[in-house]
Amino acid sequence: MKRLLTAALAIAGALAAAAPASAETITVTTPLDAPSGLECSLREAVGAASDNSATGHEGCAAGEAGAEDVIVLEAGVVYSLTLTGAGEDSNASGDLDLDTGSAGAALVAGGPGARPTLDGALGDRILDVTGDGDLRIEGLRLARGAAPGVESTDTAGAVRWTGAAADGVLTLRDALLEDNSAAIAGAIDTETTGGALIEDSTVRDTQTNDEGAVRVRGGPATVRRSAIVDNLGGGLVGQMEGAGAVTIEESTVARNRFGADLSVGGVFSAGGTSVENSTVSGNLGGFVGGVHSKGPLQVRFSTITGNGAPEDV
After folding, report:
1. Which helix (H) or strand (E) holds 18?
2. pTM here?
3. Which of 60, 108, 134, 145 could form a disulfide with 40, with the two C-beta atoms 3.0–4.6 Å apart?
């Protein structure tokens, strides 16, 4: 009996060790961008999650090292980034500078109703992300983010995640990204090895010169039950080499057209590409109209039609 009890305790300990890290909830209580000390603004919540501390963010709960920090936004509320001053990386003004740490972070809607809106107010991109932990964006609308400048590093009006050594996964779920702009990669640019998952979401009405509305550089890109449509500067660009780099399932990539650099219309992949139960149509590119894959291309139960470019598929 004693040996059985010891074995049971050992198994329980092993299961506990394997369980995912707990989540720490940080609830945003005001739509205002300026800190008050009494309420928790979105900017302060991002600071509390990044710093794992409430110091300097007194209206918010503290983030917790080793736990996923979940920032909860009220349904239907517009959170405008009105503290102007692009180009700084301390979360004081302009975009929200979020460090996902090692355990990850999330921005989610806090209940049923219209999506909460993160409004870049055309002053800067919306989220500038660092860290190794995963990032989830669920049930939100990200709009009017505008990356400053015209250089190749001025990427992503909505979400930029730089740092080739980072291995986090960017997940968009039930999200709407619209009216974002940047010189390169108009809405999303991530170079983490974890890549990106876009699920049950829409990316539309983006403006960029080149490299698409969505650019995934370091890892695989998966688009599932989603739409990448009506973007100027192209649709989806996957720059990971190797098989399985871009996967499109039950999705629509349509009516995207090239920007000033005359490149991508629909989908470009530096590696392998799989398109299944999807539609790629009405895209216009300088050299990629519908789908251009440098690796193996698999198309199943899909429609690719009405695209235009010299190297169109």
Report:
1. helix 2-18
2. 0.90
3. 60
